[in-house]
Amino acid sequence: DKYATAKHFPELSPKTQLVHSYEEYLKTLEGWGLKGERLVLKKNFETEGRGIFILKTEEIHEGLYEDWKDVLVQEFLDSSLGIPGIVEGLHDLRVTVINGEPINAYIRQPKTGSFLANISLGGSCTYIDMKDLSPQVFEYIKVISEKFKKYNPSVYAVDFMNSAKGFKLIELNSRPGLQVVSVEGDYNAFNSSLVDMLVKAVT
């Protein structure tokens, strides 16, 4: 449920509205006062980049979706300025969290000509040192972890983007999956912490 992220953390997230018809989308567009700007459209329950469109408002039409039920309309964040000292250009930053503690982080970048950084869509993945992360990222994770502290054990991933508005929370992922050797970097930090969490949960 992608909308749950924006609903529970509106102060950390880009402007987001859930619509169930093309007419509701048009009302949202009018209410936001946007014209000629880029927007992000997402199917609320899809994964791996499916159902996502990043288009200027004049390019959006009713035929984009067979069914406009559960479509997120979201403010477009221009992440092309990168993250100083870490990455240049379009990106997203994923931090994996176990029992409220950030374990590791990696940058995903889209292939040339795309805005979507999903690995399944040809994006690249580079692990980064946790000590290089902005304090703002850790502050956001602390806020999120506080909200979820009643759930234990817990494991999730937090996706951020950096833009002229600073870091914004894009999405929470309840199924970050195992991190594999084929992706270079500190995958063991996550996998080892995940095993420790599961062992503690049953002993």
Characteristics:
203 residues; 9 strands; alpha+beta; 4-stranded antiparallel beta sheet; globular; 4 helices
Care to describe what's here?
There is one protein chain. The chain has 203 residues and is α+β, with helices and mostly antiparallel strands. The chain has 4 helices and 9 strands. The protein has helices spanning 2-8, 22-32, 135-148, 187-202, and strands spanning 16-19, 38-43, 53-56, 71-75, 92-98, 101-109, 124-128, 155-163, 166-173. The chain has a 5-stranded antiparallel sheet with strand order 7-6-5-8-9, with helices on both faces. It has a 4-stranded antiparallel sheet with strand order 1-4-2-3, with helices on both faces. The longest helix is centred in the last third of the chain and has 16 residues, at 187-202. The radius of gyration is 17 Å and the shape is globular. The mean pLDDT is 89.
Short overview:
The chain is an alpha+beta fold and 203 residues long. It has 4 helices and 9 strands.
Strand elements, count:
9
SSE string, helix = H, strand = E?
Answer: HEHEEEEEEHEEH
Q: What's the overall geometry?
A: globular
Oligomer: single chain
Residue stretches low in confidence (pLDDT < 50, at least 5 long) are: none
Helix content: 10-25%
Structural class: alpha+beta
Please tell me how large the radius of gyration is. 17 Å
Distance between the termini: 31 Å
What's the main sheet like?
A: 5 strands, antiparallel
* Spatial strand sequence of the major β-sheet: 7-6-5-8-9
Average pLDDT, rounded to a whole number, is 89
> What fraction strand?
25-35%
Number of helices: 4
